[in-house]
Amino acid sequence: MSSSPRELLGGVRVAPSILSADFARLREQVAEVLAAGARVIHVDVMDGHFVPNLTIGPPVVASLRKHTDLYFDCHLMIDNPAELLDDFAEAGADGCSVHVELGDVGDLIEQMRQLGLDVGLAVNPETPFEACEAYLGDIDLLLLMTVHPGFAGQEFMPEVMDKVHQARAELDGRNLGVALQVDGGINEHTGAIAAAAGADVFVSGSAIFQAPDPLEAARRLRAAVG
């Protein structure tokens, strides 16, 4: 597997989300963002239950893993991550994020550690920061959603920036090397807003893969948040 988030995601990173990619050209589009300097691919996994949409699973991760050594950052928007974490680890995922809204995620964190997965914790826009605060010392990545999870192409929710500020202050105050990721409606403008609030990993789907030139779009976003 690739380096951990603390090593690979150190500093500012753009993580293109393949949810918005052309799946008929998925390998080619991943190569385009790699050429733009991306080192992380964000994989949105939806089960039709935790969120209303249905997307991809471990087989797609396994297929892509054969063609790239990019860091696979898998966001599990699913009800039953405990049943699938083994499959994602075997498929070649580097890290998985589970949702704090599932309840006590301590067992899931331990399961990911035992599987050699980097541990991410995702937080929905309406969920208060306090819901994830107790887990900060046990994770590698904190994902603060800037849209409601489940669909690509939604508008950025600026009110989440208060939570990003709060998370950055807590992480820095405790000297925790946790990557602080934002996901949802991220483009050059909103990415700069999130960067100013303290985020350092930026998931972007539509702004990259639906641009006329995804390679150039990824480069512009990287410059905007850097």
Structure description:
With about 230 residues, the chain is of the alpha/beta class. Helix content is about 35%, strand content about 20%. It has helices at about 5-10, 25-35, 60-65, 85-90, 105-115, 130-135, 160-175, 190-195, 205-210, 215-225, and strands at about 15, 40-45, 70-75, 95-100, 120-125, 140-145, 180-185, 200-205. β2 (about 40-45), α3 (about 60-65) and β3 (about 70-75) form a beta-alpha-beta unit. α3 (about 60-65) packs parallel to α4 (about 85-90) and α8 packs parallel to α10. The longest helix has 13 residues, at about 160-175. It is globular and about 40 Å long.
Secondary structure topology:
Blueprint (H helix, E strand, L loop, with lengths): L4 H4 L4 E4 L9 H10 L4 E7 L11 H8 L5 E7 L7 H7 L3 E5 L6 H10 L2 E6 L6 H4 L7 E5 L15 H13 L5 E5 L4 H10 L3 E4 L1 H4 L4 H12 L1
Parallel strand pairs: 1-8, 2-3, 3-4, 4-5, 5-6, 6-7, 7-8
Helix pairs in contact: 3-4, 8-10
